[in-house]
Design brief:
The complex is a heterodimer of chains A (197) and B (291). The N and C termini of chain A lie far apart (83 Å). Chain A contains 4 helices and 10 strands; from the N terminus they run ααβββββαββββαβ. Chain A is 34% helix and 40% strand. Chain A has 197 residues and is of the alpha+beta class. Chain A has helices at residues 2-10, 13-40, 97-111, 175-188; strands at 43-48, 51-56, 60-63, 70-75, 83-90, 113-125, 128-139, 148-159, 162-171, 190-191. Chain A has a 7-stranded antiparallel β-sheet with strand order 3-4-5-9-8-7-6, with helices on both faces. A 3-stranded antiparallel β-sheet of chain A has the order 1-2-10. Helix content of chain B is 74%, strand content 2%. Chain B has 11 helices and 2 strands, in the order H-H-H-H-H-H-H-H-H-H-E-E-H. Chain B has helices at 2-7, 16-19, 21-41, 47-70, 80-105, 108-111, 116-140, 152-177, 183-213, 220-240, 256-283; strands at 246-248, 251-253. The chains are: A alpha+beta (197), B mainly alpha (291). The A-B interface holds A 13-14, 16-18, 20-22, 24-25, 28-29, 31-33, 35-36, 38-40, 42, 56-58, 60, 76, 78-79 and B 106-107, 109-115, 117-118, 121-122, 124-126, 128-130, 133, 136, 140, 211-212, 216-222, 225-226, 229, 247.
Chain lengths: 197, 291
C-alpha cells in the first residue's frame, strides 16, 4: 500500500510531463540523426576526361592541370586532411598492374615525407581486378603547427594502356571513420577511355 | 504582506520602453563602443588576450539582458543569489553537455550547411531540441521544486537566467574560436545570441510557470519546449544558413546582414511577446501564490 502511494506520488502530472519532454527530445534527436545521414549521403556528379564519380555534396573540387595525372580531387571543407582523388597514370609498357603500383610508390617516396607502404593486396573492386595499397606519410605543410601523420588508401585498376588510381587521404586518427564514405565513392567511379581532359 | 501584493500593480503602469530604457541605452553604448574600438584600433590578440576579450564581450551583454529580464519581475523579485545560481548552472550545462553534444557527437558544423533542408531540420531537431531541453532541465530540476518558484513569471525569470548562462558560454566559445577576427560584428552577434537564448528559454519558462501554479494538462510544458526548440532552430537557421559563405567564380562572399537581421527580428519579437505576457499577467493581478 505504502509503495503504491509512493508510486502515485512520483508519477504525478508534472513527472509525466518530464517524461513526455524527454521522449519528445529523444525522438527529435533520432530524427535529426536521420536528417544528418541523409544530408551526408547527398552527392554531386563529377565528370572529366571520361571519369565520372559521385562525390559528397559541398566538397571542394580541384581539377588537375594538363601535365599532372590528377583528374580531380574532392576535399571536405570541414576537414583539411580528408580528400578523395582520381588520377590516370600511364601503364608501364609491357608490364603488369603491379609494376605500375611500384612506379607510383617510388614517385611518392621521392616527393612525400616519410612515405611508407603499409599493406599491398590484390582485390576485386568495381567488378574488376585491382590492387589495394595502404600507405602513410607525414604532412608538414603548415610551418606553424605540428607535423601530421596522414594515412591513405589506393585502388589501382588497369584500363587499357592506362591505370586508373582512386585515392583516399585522411589524418591517421580519423582514417577508419573515413573508409565507408570513400568505399562508396570508389565504387561509383566509372571510366570511359578517350574523354578529353 | 497580502496588502503589499495588491497595491503593487500600480508599478506596472510604467511603460515597457520607459522602464527598460536604461537597459537599451547600455546595450547600445556597449555595441557602439565594441564596433567603434574594433574598427579604429583593429586589435590583434594573444591567446590569453582573446580569452579575456571573449569573457568581457560575453559577460557584459549577459549582465545587461539578465537585468532586463529580472526587472520584469516587479511584484516579488526573486532572490538574486538564486537567479545567479541558475545562471551559472545554465553555463555549466552548456559547457559540460550541450556544446560537446552538438559540436562533437552530432558534428553539426560538418554537415549542416550542405543542404537548406538539412540546415533547417538539423537546426530544429538537433540544435533546438538539445539546447531547449537542457535549459528546461536546468530550471526543472533546480529551482522549480522550491518555494521560491511561486509566480507564473518566475518560470520566465529563472529560464531566461538559464538561457543567458548557456549563451554566455556559447559566446565565449564563439569569440575565442574566431581568432579575434572582426570582433565588432562579433559583439553584435554575441548580444543577439544572448537575447535569443534567453527569450527562447523564456517561452519554456512561461509554460513551466503556468504548469506549476495552474492545473494544466500533461502536454502543456512539452508544447512550450517544442515551441522554444522551433524558434531556436529558426534562429540558428537564419543566423547560420543565410550568413554562410558562398563560393563564386572569384572566391567566396559573405553577407551576414540579411540572416542576422532576420534572426534579430525573431529574437526581439519573442522578447516583446514575453514582456507582453508578463504585463498581461500583472494586469490580471496574478501575483505570488503559496507553492
Amino acid at each position: 500500500m505504502a509503495s503504491t502511494s509512493k508510486y502515485t506520488r512520483w508519477f504525478t502530472k508534472e513527472a509525466q510531463a518530464v517524461l513526455l519532454i524527454s521522449a519528445i527530445t529523444l525522438l527529435a534527436i533520432i530524427l535529426g540523426l536521420v536528417v544528418k545521414s541523409a544530408a551526408l549521403s547527398q552527392t554531386r556528379t563529377l565528370s572529366r576526361a571520361g571519369v565520372i564519380s559521385e562525390a559528397p555534396l559541398g566538397w571542394i573540387v580541384r581539377q588537375g592541370v594538363a601535365q599532372e595525372p590528377l583528374i580531380y580531387s574532392a576535399s571536405d571543407p570541414g576537414d583539411p586532411y580528408l580528400k578523395y582523388a582520381v588520377s590516370l597514370l600511364p601503364a608501364v609498357p609491357g608490364g603488369t598492374l603491379g609494376d605500375s603500383v611500384v612506379t607510383e610508390n617510388l614517385n611518392r617516396a621521392r616527393t612525400l615525407n616519410a612515405y611508407k607502404v603499409l599493406d599491398q593486396t590484390p582485390v576485386t573492386a568495381r567488378g574488376k581486378d585491382a590492387y589495394r595499397i595502404s600507405f602513410a606519410y607525414v604532412q608538414t605543410n603548415d610551418p606553424t603547427s605540428m607535423p601530421v601523420v596522414v594515412r591513405g588508401l589506393d585502388f589501382y585498376f588497369l584500363e587499357g594502356n592506362q591505370v586508373l588510381l582512386v585515392t583516399l587521404e585522411e589524418q591517421a586518427g580519423m582514417f577508419e571513420g573515413a573508409l565507408p564514405g570513400f568505399m562508396t565513392f570508389m565504387e561509383s567511379v566509372k571510366y570511359t577511355p578517350g574523354g578529353a581532359k | 504582506m497580502e496588502e503589499k501584493k495588491t497595491s503593487q500593480p500600480i508599478l506596472h503602469k510604467k511603460s515597457f520602453l520607459g522602464s527598460n530604457l536604461v537597459t537599451f541605452v547600455l546595450l547600445g553604448l556597449f555595441l557602439v563602443l565594441e564596433v567603434g574600438l574594433d574598427a579604429l584600433l583593429k586589435p590583434t590578440y594573444s591567446a590569453t588576450g582573446l580569452v579575456a576579450a571573449g569573457i568581457f564581450m560575453a559577460v557584459i551583454p549577459a549582465i545587461i539582458w539578465i537585468v532586463f529580464f529580472y526587472r520584469q519581475d516587479r511584484l516579488e523579485p526573486e532572490p538574486k543569489g538564486m537567479v545567479l545560481q541558475v545562471f551559472l548552472l545554465g553555463g555549466l550545462v552548456a559547457a559540460a553537455v550541450g556544446i560537446p553534444l552538438v559540436n562533437n557527437v552530432f558534428g553539426v558544423s560538418a554537415w549542416i550547411y550542405k543542404t537548406w533542408w538539412g540546415n533547417l531540420l538539423g537546426a530544429i531537431l538537433l540544435v533546438g531540441f538539445t539546447q531547449e531541453f537542457l535549459k528546461y532541465a536546468t530550471v526543472r530540476f533546480s529551482v522549480y521544486p522550491t518555494a521560491e518558484f511561486n509566480e507564473r513569471i518566475d518560470g520566465i525569470i529563472y529560464s531566461t537566467a538559464a538561457g543567458v548562462g548557456y549563451a554566455t558560454v556559447l559566446s565565449i566559445l564563439f569569440v575565442t574560436s574566431s581568432g579575434g577576427v572582426d570582433l565588432g560584428m562579433g559583439a553584435v552577434r554575441v548580444a543577439l545570441t544572448v537575447l535569443a537564448q534567453a527569450s527562447f528559454s523564456g517561452v519554456t519558462g512561461y509554460f513551466l510557470g503556468r504548469e506549476k501554479l495552474e492545473q494544466k494538462p500533461v502536454w502543456w510544458t512539452p508544447l512550450g519546449v517544442c515551441i522554444a526548440a522551433l524558434l531556436n532552430g529558426l534562429f540558428y537557421f537564419f543566423d547560420g544558413a543565410l550568413s554562410a559563405p558562398r563560393l563564386t567564380a572569384t572566391g567566396s562572399t559573405v553577407n551576414p546582414y540579411f540572416g542576422l537581421a532576420l534572426a534579430a527580428v525573431l529574437a526581439i519579437a519573442v522578447t516583446a511577446l514575453l514582456s507582453w505576457l508578463i504585463d498581461r499577467d500583472y494586469r490580471r493581478g496574478l501575483g505570488p501564490q503559496e507553492a
